[in-house]
Write a structure and sequence with these properties.
- The structure is a single chain.
- The protein contains 15 helices and no strands.
- By secondary structure, it is an all-alpha fold.
- Helix 1 runs antiparallel to helix 7 and helix 8 packs antiparallel against helix 15.
Length: 392
């Protein structure tokens, strides 16, 4: 039996997390390829990606309540393999309807695999730390992906994008088969006072739902702002090269928040971090969408995603203590992908009618809601406990 907190278990979860979160990394290249190589209209390209995200959300919502009754390794291996086969089929067609069907099915398979991955991480001895580790791995993978994939697509054509996706999913299926850990061996996180027990509780506590809502509101804000980070920079006249510099800086900055959150796990109360993070996010969003100064735009744009990565790590650890069965955090893909699906549509609609500055106002509203949700989290569970020493 592979333990979650073993090196082998960590590798299995890192690969599964990186593959499951591939869409968050691949989004610009994904949409761009569908438009440039497949000649779809931007709305059609956006719809295909939205269908994939919808599949992720639906699978995560349906699986989360049943997480404790499933074999994580079986689900991850099977679903990543199904996703690999689906993307392989996508590489052999240019028909929009067929691609739409494949996107939905691949999204559902991907969402199921990612859900058991996050649920298993939640049952580890130190979920905060392990979530930081897998997010750091994702940041490194993103740099390699964004550096290599566009060149492959440019040389081999649009279908090569889906071949790359399929190869990643196939690798994830193999690693999951060999190294995905058993959640049953990783229940070292002790329930906090007043938390639900692992004996099939009837539902999540109110604090857990508020935490989930807070995370979702921050991800909607991030997706809304990040989707138009490049466009607003060009609209302000900063120039394509300058804006590209901000995006490159953002990629490297995003390597820092997860390990920093791991280092500060026992030094900062999670509840305090979560109350401050939406305020910082709103200030950065207002700066990005309203500043005419390149330096202010560049600094704010390069760190705005890092704020969410940093705070979400604390939210993950706190929710794992509040709901120790792992079911709530197995719904993490639904929290993240709902925001990824809503944010661009909401942002585009606001820009159409009110201009880029309205996104800053919307960010203030959404972040205020996040602060309100996080304020309902209990104070006594806000600091990560020191784990008991392992018996000799």
């Amino acid at each position: 039996m592979i333990k979650t907190d073993s090196t082998r278990g960590h590798v299995g979860l890192m690969v599964a997390h990186c593959a499951g979160m591939l869409d968050t990394v691949a989004l610009p290249v994904w949409v761009g390829t569908l438009v440039a190589s497949y000649r779809f209209e931007p709305q059609q390209a956006g719809l295909l990606v939205a269908l994939f995200l919808a599949g992720v959300v639906a699978a995560s919502v349906l699986l989360a309540p049943r997480f404790n009754r499933l074999s994580g390794r079986t689900v991850a291996t099977t679903c990543f393999l199904a996703c690999a086969l689906g993307f392989g089929a996508a590489s052999m067609t240019t028909d929009f309807v067929m691609l739409a069907l494949v996107h939905v099915l691949c999204g559902a398979a991907n969402g199921a695999a990612l859900s058991v991955t996050h649920g298993t991480i939640a049952l580890s001895a130190r979920p905060h730390r392990l979530f930081a580790i897998v997010n750091t791995a994702l940041g490194v993978a993103a740099i390699f992906y964004l550096g290599i994939t566009p060149q492959i697509v440019a040389k081999a054509g649009g279908p090569a994008l889906f071949v790359v996706f399929g190869a990643v999913m196939a690798l994830a299926a193999l690693i999951s088969l060999l190294a995905f850990p058993s959640a049953d061996a990783a229940t070292a996180t002790a329930p906090v006072a007043g938390a639900q027990t692992a004996q099939a509780p009837p539902g999540f506590g109110r604090a857990v739902w508020f935490g989930i809502a807070g995370v979702a509101l921050m991800t909607v804000t991030q997706a809304m702002i990040f989707s138009f980070l490049e466009r607003v920079g060009n609209e302000r006249g900063f120039g394509a090269a300058a804006v590209a510099g901000v995006l490159i800086a953002l990629g490297f900055v995003n390597l820092l928040p997860a390990p920093l959150a791991a280092l500060l796990e026992r030094r900062l109360p999670a509840r305090s971090v979560l109350l401050c993070a939406p305020v910082v996010q709103a200030v950065l969003a207002m700066t990005v969408m309203n500043s005419t100064d390149y330096l202010a735009y560049g600094v704010a744009g390069s760190v705005i995603v890092a704020v969410v990565i940093f705070s979400h790590t604390f939210a993950f650890g706190l929710l794992a203590r509040l709901e120790p069965t792992g079911r709530a955090l197995s719904a993490t893909p639904a929290m993240l992908m709902t925001g990824a699906a809503i944010g661009p549509v909401l942002g585009g609609t606001l820009i159409k009618f009110f201009g880029y500055g309205s996104l800053g106002i919307a960010a203030i509203v959404l972040c205020s809601g996040a602060v309100l949700c996080y304020s309902r989290l209990p104070r006594q569970n806000a600091v990560a406990p020191t784990p008991a020493p392992t018996p000799a």
